[in-house]
Specification:
heterodimer; A: 273 residues; mainly alpha; 2 strands; B: 310 residues; alpha/beta; Alpha-Beta Plaits; six-stranded mixed beta sheet; transport (chain A); cell membrane (chain A); transmembrane (chain A); Nod_factor_ABC_transporter (chain A); ABC2_TM_bact-type (chain A)
């Protein structure tokens, strides 16, 4: 346990010391917020209103959970990838030679990356007043554990990827293969209706899909939207034809995290032998 | 204390360690020498349970660590070749991190940090981030974090590479003191013969994955007891002179530098008249001819045909 706490705490200290990284990791989500929220917001709101007779549909409010999810995903994955540097610079040899088990090293790193991602995600909420979006305190405290669970799932994925990479050279590949497709195939930024079967399959397996959906259900008053808007905006999520429940989504994320942390530990053990 | 039995590591395209047998007794400082690519780091990795051998065994207190590495991991400290410190953490935070990895906490951890920082001469710098440290200070701290949990066995993989002579002396003195005061067992790998000669009780020499010599310093130097080494300095070396030396039946080995050539000959042979004769034949000016007592470097040269730092 002491080893898990030490590895977790080191990531937190590093986060607060590395201000350029803190600021830099906001740039992409803010860019997306500007492009999608301001650039496409007007058109999307007109289309939805025209198709559904809905009043007061706020597209920025719809994509904000998606942007936060994107921040969580990027920070978690990139933070987990720092384990490659640990390996290259020899820190990992010092840790691996110690009595801390491989599983605890993986869990400590996963929790560290997830905590950093959560902090970064929470900082995005500072933008809410600027965007004209309101959130009550109850919803805010409800969304925090969901964000942390999402960050744990993404960090586990990052750890698995890191254990398969030999160097940071593959970093860009990871962004292209995992991060961006996971964002675009989650319904975070636009609804994914009438997609081909194989795309739907990927959407169904994508953990971001369920994280974003959970966040939307907490942050947006989904029930107050009319049925046509919910349908149009992809808020009636299904899992292989079955309607998705909040409990189901939570279990999916928990299961995803558990399986990936196990795979990451096994892969990590193999990579270091 | 720890024994390597027929240890072998094969990778896809090469065999990094071939049937290595060695042992370290409690309280010894043992040197492991070899040029780059000799297989030292791979051997150390297997010894420290960081990687699994493809053959053979590592036995710690007569028990295989391949099946159960936990007893070894509790008492081993590792100083890697790289500076493995977090640049954006202070010296004290680095020590806290590595101490906690070894399950130290609270007052015990605090007391150990104070003690080790004092030993490595960094007490005054404890609150400074490591990024601002000199290379020598980083090396000292690198050793300090491995000493926090009072390891019974300290594995040091070239700990004094790339630092100033003052810091190197400090490190050597610290290792010597740890061994004398706490009977800490040390495995020390290095490129530098003088470090190993100063510190180590026994020495193992590896080259291309093979163990090519082992024993005490004196035993290893005995390898050359039937021979002597002669260093010849000239105004300029030419190929004809080298060819004549190589063709001479009394010379066992010729190693040429830029303006210096070292030959190994049987102890009883007087080479001076012959060398003068050969030099005159090729119109070469001899600057000096010096008979040397064999050093570990000479033994290494003799065994591998190349200098240790090549």
């Amino acid at each position: 346990m002491e080893g898990i706490i030490a590895i977790w705490q080191r990531d937190i200290i590093k986060f607060f010391r590395d201000r350029p990284r803190m600021v830099g990791s906001f740039s992409m989500p803010i860019l997306f917020l500007v492009v999608f929220g301001i650039g496409m917001g007007g058109s999307m709101e007109s289309l939805v209103s025209a198709g559904t007779n809905a009043q007061n549909f706020n597209y920025t409010e719809f994509i904000f959970p998606g942007i936060v999810s994107m921040t969580l995903l990027m920070t978690s994955i990139f933070s987990s990838l720092s384990i490659i540097q640990d390996r290259d610079f020899g820190y990992m040899r010092e840790i691996l030679v110690s009595p801390v088990s491989r599983v605890n090293i993986a869990i400590g790193k996963m929790l560290g990356s997830a905590s950093v991602a959560l902090l970064q995600g929470v900082m995005m909420f500072v933008l809410l007043p600027v965007l004209g979006i309101g959130i009550d305190l109850v919803s805010f405290f409800q969304v925090l554990p969901v964000m942390f669970l999402m960050a744990c799932a993404f960090s586990s994925l990052g750890l698995l990827v890191a254990s398969l990479l030999n160097s940071m050279q593959g970093f860009q590949l990871v962004v292209n293969i995992f991060v961006m497709p996971m964002i675009f195939l989650s319904g975070a930024l636009f609804p994914l209706n009438n997609m081909p079967g194989w795309v739907n399959f990927l959407v169904t397996l994508n953990p971001v899909t369920y994280g974003v959906d959970l966040m939307k259900h907490i942050m947006i008053d989904v029930e107050s939207l009319n049925a046509a808007v919910r349908e149009e905006m992809g808020l009636n999520l299904t899992f292989f034809g079955q309607p998705v429940t909040i409990t189901g989504e939570l279990f999916f994320l928990l299961g995803f995290t558990a399986v990936l942390i196990l795979l990451a530990t096994l892969s990590f053990r193999r990579a270091n032998s | 204390m720890i024994e390597l039995v027929g240890l072998t590591k094969k990778f896809k395209h090469n065999e990094a360690v071939k049937n290595l047998n060695m042992f370290i007794e409690k309280g010894e400082i043992v040197g492991l020498l070899g040029p780059n690519g000799a297989g030292k780091s791979t051997a150390i990795s297997m010894m420290a349970s960081l990687s699994e051998p493809t053959g053979g065994d590592v036995r710690f207190n007569n028990n295989s660590i391949l099946k159960n590495p936990a007893p070894l991991r509790k008492v081993v400290g590792m100083v890697p070749q790289e500076i493995a410190l977090y640049d954006d953490l202070t010296a004290e935070e680095n020590m806290q991190f590595f101490g906690r990895i070894y399950r130290l906490r609270g007052q015990v951890l605090k007391r150990k940090i104070d003690e080790v920082l004092e030993q490595i001469g960094l007490s005054e710098r404890r609150k400074q981030v490591v990024r601002k440290f000199s290379g020598g200070m980083k090396r000292r701290l690198n050793i300090g974090v491995a000493m926090l949990h009072d390891p019974e066995l300290l594995i040091m993989d070239e700990p004094a590479v790339g630092i100033d002579p003052q810091s190197r002396n400090y490190i050597l003195e610290t290792v010597k003191r740890l061994n004398e005061e706490r009977q800490m067992t040390v495995l020390y790998t290095s490129h530098y013969m003088e470090e190993v000669e100063y510190l180590c009780d026994r020495i193992y020499i590896m080259d291309q994955g093979n163990l090519i010599a082992s024993g005490t310093k004196e035993e290893i130097k005995q390898i050359l007891s039937a021979e002597k080494t002669i260093s010849i300095k000239t105004n300029r070396l030419n190929d004809r002179f080298l060819s004549l030396l190589e063709e001479s039946p009394t010379i066992n080995q010729v190693v040429a530098g830029e303006k210096e050539v070292t030959i190994t000959v049987p102890k009883e042979i007087n080479m001076f008249p012959k060398l003068i004769n050969l030099a005159e034949k090729v119109e070469l000016e001899l600057r000096s001819v010096e008979v040397k007592t064999p050093t570990l470097e000479d033994v290494f040269l003799h065994l591998t045909g190349r200098a240790l730092r090549d």
